[in-house]
Specification:
Elements: E1 3-7, H1 11-22, E2 26-30, H2 34-53, H3 59-68, E3 69-72, H4 75-79, E4 84-87, H5 93-106, E5 112-115, H6 123-126, E6 135-140, E7 149-154, H7 157-169, E8 173-176, H8 186-202, H9 208-217, H10 225-232, H11 234-248, H12 257-265
Parallel strand pairs: 1-2, 1-4, 2-3, 4-5, 5-6, 7-8
Antiparallel strand pairs: 6-7
Helix pairs in contact: 1-2
The protein binds nicotinamide-adenine-dinucleotide.
The site of nicotinamide-adenine-dinucleotide (NAD) has 23 residues, from helix 1 and helix 5.
């Protein structure tokens, strides 16, 4: 597996493409517009310049990686030579199914088509292609240049093995799921901690501040669940829960009363100046 194609140059796609290029792969990253690609390249350049300045990478490694990385809107011209595709386009099932159907027509028959989706499972995309056994989830974490975990999920053993092997060669630590489950592993555990924190709050057991403090000081979490929900955006977790409930129908997958109230009030965390905490002073 030599040539990588990353579809979507947003928050995840740009960094995933750079992870591949840094590991020595000829990599192409595509998006819908030149503007999106220019933003991706400029954010990668400033991030990697910072890494060089801090001594985390050498200038030569970074220059070599950029030389292996192509930014283009021409999906047709590039998919035909890809050995493995990582789709990191917007989190919409219809968009992803359309991308997979197109990739299936354009990519060589041996190519593996993966999605970086956090919620959409490969079985929801596999039947949009004529190669369902070569479709898999390859789920990186944000920021992809830093986080080591990659969750891998697929129905065909050889495909899963190939993706696991690639993840290792990218310097990541693959985690293999033996069956499909919405949310996969890491985000389910994260979600369970958040749910329990909200349960304790709703029961009046302890304050937001003290529950976060317990997680930091007793469990060694870098930040408490409420701080993290405020940072990622309370609406993100809310919509993820609704999406999970739509698949499972399990009432435990519905968003909590507290989170629903915050979303309805527009208190979405740091980005709106208020969530579980207030950030008005920082603003
Ligand atoms: N942001 C995260 O923390 C995170 C973490 C892990 C996984 N993911 C997953 O990664 C994927 C991308 O998320 P993101 O945060 O990078 O989104 P983003 O909105 O930052 O980027 C998505 C990019 O895809 C492009 N795009 C949309 N339709 C396209 C198409 N048909 N062809 C090519 N490009 C297209 C958009 O122009 C945009 O640049 C999602 O599936 C998400 O679930 C996100």
């Amino acid at each position: 597996m030599e040539r990588m194609l990353v579809v979507g140059a947003g928050t995840m796609g740009a960094q995933i493409a750079m992870v591949c290029a840094l590991a020595g792969h000829d990599t192409t990253v595509t998006d819908l517009t030149d503007d999106a690609l220019a933003r991706a390249e400029s954010s990668l350049r400033s991030r990697l310049d910072r890494d060089v300045a801090k001594g985390r990478r050498t200038r030569d490694d970074v220059d070599d990686a950029f030389a292996r990385l192509t930014f283009t809107t021409d999906l047709v011209g590039t998919a035909s030579t890809a050995d493995l595709v990582i789709e990191a386009a917007v989190e919409k099932l219809d968009v992803k199914r359309e991308v997979f159907a197109r990739l299936d027509k354009l990519a060589p028959p041996h190519a593996i088509l993966t999605t970086n989706s956090s919620a959409i499972m490969s079985s929801q995309l596999a039947d949009a292609t004529g190669r369902p056994d070569r479709v898999a989830n390859m789920h990186f974490f944000n920021p992809a240049l830093v986080m080591r975990c990659v969750e891998v999920l697929g129905t065909d053993e050889a495909t899963v093995e190939a993706v696991v092997d690639l993840a290792r060669r990218l310097g990541k630590e693959p985690v293999v799921l033996h069956k499909e489950i919405p949310g996969f592993v890491a985000n389910r555990i994260l979600g369970a901690a958040s749910d329990e924190a909200i349960f304790l709050l709703e029961q009046g057991v302890a304050s937001v501040e003290d529950i976060d403090a317990a997680c930091r000081t007793a469990l060694g979490y870098p930040m408490g669940p409420f701080e993290l929900m405020d940072l990622t955006g309370i609406d993100i977790g809310y919509h993820a829960k609704l999406a999970r409930h739509a698949v499972t129908g399990d009432p435990r997958d519905l968003p909590s009363r507290t989170v629903t109230e915050l979303v309805e009030r527009g208190d979405l965390g740091r980005k709106t100046g208020k969530g579980f905490y207030s950030y008005e002073d920082e603003r």
